[in-house]
């Protein structure tokens, strides 16, 4: 009988400790921060600046984008002005390689373009890791005159990005 009584004492103490500790355990778990996500969509933006230190440009502009995490779709709008020559190519890069082309852009020193592209899971991860940028290539700078590094609108914009090949790209000059 004494053994059963002692068993209940131990169980009651264990139960009491569990009851007291449970709120601490459940309240200290951090919920994923999706404060910048509405219905699975995350807003991004990036300001255009010269793509490399050796580029001489007064180009400015912005790319804004909304990423749908369910559909893996990136809807974007890009506006630029002040390029040294006309646009010959535009695309998004991730980790240094061309991710997807931007089509239907005007071949002009200033302009706007918008569209939607579907990303792979890796590209979506690169976007979330601030490894994605829009690039404008021109007649004068076929390797890229201006880039806009995409970052979550609620966060601060990144000023530099180093590609997998070691090239350092600058944004916001």
Written description of the protein model:
By secondary structure, the chain is α+β, with helices and mostly antiparallel strands. Helix content is 20%, strand content 40%. It is built from 2 helices and 13 strands; from the N terminus they run H-E-E-E-E-E-E-E-E-H-E-E-E-E-E. Strands 1, 2, 4, 5, 8 and 11 form a 6-stranded antiparallel β-sheet that branches. Strands 3-10-9-6-7 form a 5-stranded antiparallel β-sheet. A hairpin with a 7-residue loop joins strand 9 (132-138) and strand 10. It starts with a helix and ends with a strand. The model is unreliable at 14-35, 155-165 and 167-173 (pLDDT under 50).
Please report the total strand number as a whole number: 13
Residue share in β-strands: 35-45%
Q: Supply the helix-strand structural class.
A: alpha+beta
Helical segment count? 2
Note the gap between the termini. Answer: 82 Å
List unreliable stretches of 5+ residues. Answer: 14-35, 155-165, 167-173
Mean pLDDT: 78
Largest sheet: 6 strands, antiparallel
Q: What's the overall geometry?
A: elongated
Helix % is: 10-25%
The string of secondary-structure elements, in order, is HEEEEEEEEHEEEEE
Radius of gyration: 25 Å
């Amino acid at each position: 009988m004494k053994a059963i009584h002692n068993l209940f004492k131990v169980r009651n103490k264990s139960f009491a400790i569990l009851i007291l500790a449970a709120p601490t355990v459940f309240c200290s778990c951090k919920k994923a921060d999706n404060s910048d996500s509405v219905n699975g969509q995350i807003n991004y933006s990036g300001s255009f600046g010269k793509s490399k230190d050796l580029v001489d440009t007064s180009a400015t502009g912005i790319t804004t984008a909304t990423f749908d995490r369910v559909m893996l779709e990136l809807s974007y709008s890009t506006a630029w002005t002040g390029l040294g020559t006309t646009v010959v190519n535009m695309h998004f890069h991730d980790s240094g390689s061309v991710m997807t082309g931007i089509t239907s852009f005007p071949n002009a020193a200033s302009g706007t373009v918008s569209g939607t592209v579907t990303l792979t899971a890796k590209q979506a991860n690169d976007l979330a890791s601030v490894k994605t940028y829009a690039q404008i290539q021109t007649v004068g700078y076929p390797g890229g005159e201006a880039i806009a590094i995409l970052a979550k609108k609620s966060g601060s914009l990144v000023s530099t990005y180093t590609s997998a090949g070691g090239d350092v790209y600058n944004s916001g000059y």
